[in-house]
Amino acid sequence: MIMIAVDSIIKLLPYSSNFRFVDEISFADDASIIGHFTFVKENPVYQGHFKNVPVVPGIIAIEAMGQAGLIAHAIYLTD
Question: What is the pTM of this model?
Answer without folding.
Answer: 0.76
